């Protein structure tokens, strides 16, 4: 908990004073968010990962969700932002409990990019961003741009699946730290691509899914080949989880 506090306190200070900080060019701002701010924010999820096996993750996640709503109504937006992160983190870990094998995680990683892409380009996310921007700000996590009253935002599903995939890497004996690196890099690349293409937003879950699949591809392939097939007897051997690489 001490390491989490040591990272959280400077982040809270930055969020409070960010409008009064330096002003730089657009691409310097993108680099700051992608290479500094995002790794620090998602470093909290990595440091909190040992809590994923705590049996009370569901009530804790719901409590943080209520806290985020209360803080939002009270206009304590910075603290609501991090309460939102905590809520999605614990709820993502709770959701992972329903995945019996890593094959289920792989299946979800293959499906959610298409659902997210449809939502952003034709579905409810597009409608919310275009016509109900205040709702999107409540249902997203902000990464403030220094020297401005502006921010890059990730929706709560992006946060939830980040936490879920990172926890899945830990639970199923995959490459936890490399998974964290590629997840963060994928989100940073999504922000950069959005700016480069001059778009209002891009779906982030395709990058999140790749951030889980790519660094673990060989281990996942081995694990999926060892999965019992329909009709196999109970004596089919399932390989033990591999150590982190």
Give the key terms.
4% strand; mainly alpha; 245 residues; 11 helices; single chain; 67% helix
Which helices and strands occur, and which strands form pairs?
Blueprint: H1 2-17, H2 26-48, H3 57-73, H4 77-96, H5 102-121, H6 124-131, H7 133-138, E1 140-144, E2 151-155, H8 156-171, H9 176-196, H10 205-213, H11 217-225
Antiparallel strand pairs: 1-2
Helix pairs in contact: 1-2, 2-9, 3-4, 4-8, 5-10, 8-9, 8-10, 9-10
Q: How would you explain this protein's 3D organization?
A:
The protein has 245 residues and is mainly α. The chain has one domain. Helices cover 67% and strands 4% of the residues. The protein has helices spanning 2-17, 26-48, 57-73, 77-96, 102-121, 124-131, 133-138, 156-171, 176-196, 205-213, 217-225; strands at residues 140-144, 151-155. The protein has a two-stranded antiparallel ribbon. Strand 1 and strand 2 form a beta hairpin. Helix 1 packs antiparallel against helix 2 and helix 2 packs antiparallel against helix 9. It is globular. It starts with a helix and ends in a 20-residue tail after the last helix.
Task: Write a compact overview of the structure shown.
Helices cover 67% and strands 4% of the residues.
């Amino acid at each position: 908990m001490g390491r989490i506090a040591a990272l959280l306190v400077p982040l809270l200070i930055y969020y409070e004073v960010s409008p009064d900080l330096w002003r730089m060019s657009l691409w310097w701002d993108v680099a700051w968010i992608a290479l500094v701010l995002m790794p620090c924010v998602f470093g909290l999820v990595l440091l909190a990962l040992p809590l994923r096996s705590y049996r009370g993750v569901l009530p804790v996640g719901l409590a943080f969700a209520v806290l985020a709503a209360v803080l939002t109504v009270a206009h304590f937006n910075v603290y609501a932002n991090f309460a939102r992160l905590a809520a999605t983190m614990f709820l993502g870990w709770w959701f992972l409990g329903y995945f019996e094998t890593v094959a289920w995680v792989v299946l979800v990683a293959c499906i959610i990019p298409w659902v997210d892409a449809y939502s952003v380009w034709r579905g409810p996310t597009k409608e919310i961003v275009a016509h109900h921007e205040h709702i999107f700000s409540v249902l997203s996590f902000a990464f403030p741009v220094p020297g401005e009253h502006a921010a890059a935002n990730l929706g709560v599903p992006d946060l939830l699946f980040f936490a879920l995939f990172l926890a899945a890497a830990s639970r199923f004996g995959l490459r936890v730290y490399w998974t964290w690196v590629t997840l963060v890099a994928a989100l940073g690349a999504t922000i950069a691509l959005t700016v480069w293409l001059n778009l209002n937003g891009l779906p982030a879950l395709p990058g999140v899914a790749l951030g889980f699949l790519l660094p673990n591809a060989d281990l996942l392939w081995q694990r999926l080949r060892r999965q019992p097939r329909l009709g196999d007897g109970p004596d089919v051997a399932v390989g033990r989880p591999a150590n982190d690489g």
